[in-house]
Amino acid sequence: MKIDAIKTFLVDSGSAKHWLFVKVETDEGIHGWGEAYTQLDRDRVIKRQMDELARYLVGRSPFDVKQFVFSAYSDFAGKRGSLELFCAISGIEQALWDIVGKAAGQPVYNLLGGRTRRRLRVYANGWGGAEDPEALAERAKAVVARGFTALKFDPFPGLWRSYIDRKQEDEAVERVRAVREAVGPDVDILVEVHRRLAPMHAVRAAQAMERYAPFWFEEPVSARDLDALAEVRHSISLPVVTGEELYTKNEFREVFERRAADILNPDVCNCGGILELREIGAMAEAYHVAMAPHNYNSTTVGLASTLHASAGMPNFLITEYFVNFEDTGREISRQTLEVEDSFITLPDTPGLGVDLDEKALEERPFRPRPLRDLPLDSGSGSSPG
Fold it and tell me: C-alpha angle with apex 251: 292 to 316, nearest 5 degrees?
């Protein structure tokens, strides 16, 4: 079997970002789907990187997944990594696994050692966006009413600078209080910080939030400063999460060595793909670190890839599900990964278990967004997942 064509689709998701899919076709009629992580205003560059990589795949075997990833980084990129490169690699890598699974007649997780569970827990994201504590609380109650037992939100909206004042800290704590009181003690609330605080503020805010029992404190400080991240981790009692800005297992090595995090959240659509996520998980297991994959992608291919990669991880904890992506995901996919009581049952069909509708993708072409507001005096900006 040889690869004979690669198609890419940059799709208007109807939300704050585009989705980027890749379809890899073979000379035996088997095709595979993959998805790359995207960021607004960088998405077309990621697509271009994927298109360039595709030229090196035609005529090759789709079974040589590891060789593709190794060569793409070592030879194609000259060991010079970037967000665009790793997103492109990740999407293509998933599509190759989809083909291999279909050719073998097995779900991808069976080719990676099988599963350790039949269902995987998810937390709801994409429901927040309100700064008023009471409005945020009402939104949280609506998500819980749908059956979710865990939900994540950022109580520091609009703040993209390391230093904040005490009033802003208190406002963030107040939002956490409002959500906790709204959902009760049995729902897990996950606090997102988006790598925006200096250690002093991160520690002070986390300690004030501890009385409301957050499930975790995600990315208080950038993983690019692991000493600062470790400082926060050792100064608070909440579990610290990091990983979505790191790529490949090589960048996670130092996180383990410095004991900088309790939980990792690498993203299958930018960390290097399904096998790379599994290998990061295996490294984490040896260091007693849990895995909670990030998934700011569609509820179709990216989510399916996360499930297959996570199925065999003994240290899997929970993963991400964007409720605001559901409708468009159902529109473009021929299969739906349903959430029931905050769990998704693993698909048992060959490959990744999802197939996209090309016509539906083509009916949602790239749509330019207005230039983002980047005022110099407030430090505000748009929040990623």
Answer: 20
Which among 18, 31, 201, 294 is annotated as catalytic? 294
236-258 pLDDT, tens digit each: 999 999 999 999 999 999 999 99
User: Greater confidence, 373 or 28?
Assistant: 28
Q: Decide: pTM greater than 0.90.
A: yes
Token pair recorded at residue 107: 């779900």
Q: If DSSP codes are grouped into helix, strand and coil, which group holds residue 328? A: helix
Distance of alpha carbon 143 from alpha carbon 375, whole angstroms? 32
Is 294 tagged catalytic? yes
Q: How far apart are CA 347 and CA 13, in angstroms?
A: 24
pLDDT the model gives residue 165 = 82
Question: Which H or E run contains 7?
Answer: strand 3-12
pLDDT value at 373 more than 90: no
Token pair, residue 277, equals 């996520």
Structural domains of the chain, with CATH: 3-107 (3.30.390.10), 110-349 (3.20.20.120)
The CB-side HSE value for 221 (13 A sphere, CA atoms) comes to: 22
Q: Let me know if 186 is exposed, middle or buried by CB neighbors in 10 A (0-12, 13-18, 19+).
A: exposed
**Contact residues for 25 (Cβ-Cβ < 8 A; gap 6+):** 3, 4, 5, 6, 7, 31
**281 — phi, psi (to 5°)?**
-65, -40
Residue 159 has pLDDT above 70, yes or no: no
SS3 366: coil
Please tell me which residue in 194, 201, 288, 308 is annotated as part of the active site. 194
Q: Distance (Å, rounded) from C-alpha 235 to C-alpha 322? A: 31
Q: Six-digit token pair at 111?
A: 């080719």
Phi, psi of 21 (to 5 degrees): -115, 155
